[in-house]
Amino acid sequence: MKKKKGIFITFEGIEGSGKSSHCKLAAQHLKRKGYDVLTVREPGGTKIGEKIRQILLDKKNSHMTVECELLLYNAARVQIVREVIMPALQKGTIVLCDRFIDSTIAYQCYGGGLDRTIATKINNFATGTVMPMVTFLLDSDVGRGLKRAGRGDRMELKSFAFHKRVRKGFLTIAKQYPRRFCVIKECTIDEGRKIITRKLNVLFP
């Protein structure tokens, strides 16, 4: 099996953008090439994180404040970073994560109106030294994305205007960090897979 220093890669995007599907496809591709790969998701990925995920996405918690969201997402984040992601990277594993810190900035700051400076400090506290080398942003039309997602959980049920702000937030963040981000405009699964595969093949020949 090929050995390479552990690398952290994230997949971001609005609801129904296809990020989860592409995260799985990327893992399959790298495993076929012989690499040790771990896929995780946020929020979740640990027993504690999955319980926090249930609270965050439960439609019954419609009164949850955006400040509470920020803290709960980062509570789940610090757990998965310390319990799962850091140990895997130290072993040389390629870690692929479905959502990470950029989702917090896009959803709670651009979407929810929180101060980005405060959110960034809390994100940094939760992640420590762990930062993605590459972030694939799956861009999508908000209407089509929400239709694909099904609007089944509390976050998906937020207003159309909220999700438009989230999309704008992701694109703004990507422009601010062009070396880290690979933006994939709305396309078919196969077209997106080919773009991501080409990028991965450069990193992992």
Task: Record keyword descriptors for this entry.
Rossmann fold; 205 residues; alpha/beta; single chain; 5 strands; five-stranded parallel beta sheet; 12% strand
Description:
This protein has a single domain, classed as P-loop containing nucleotide triphosphate hydrolases (Rossmann fold, 3-Layer(aba) Sandwich). It starts with 7 loop residues before the first strand and ends with a helix. The longest helix is centred in the middle third of the chain and has 25 residues, at 66-90. The model has no long low-confidence stretch (mean pLDDT 95). α1 (19-32) crosses α8. It has helices at residues 19-32, 47-57, 66-90, 101-111, 116-127, 142-149, 160-176, 189-203; strands spanning 8-13, 37-41, 94-98, 134-138, 181-184. It is built from eight helices and five strands; from the N terminus they run βαβααβααβααβα. The radius of gyration is 16 Å and the shape is globular. The chain has a five-stranded parallel beta sheet, with helices on both faces. The chain has 205 residues and is of the alpha/beta class.
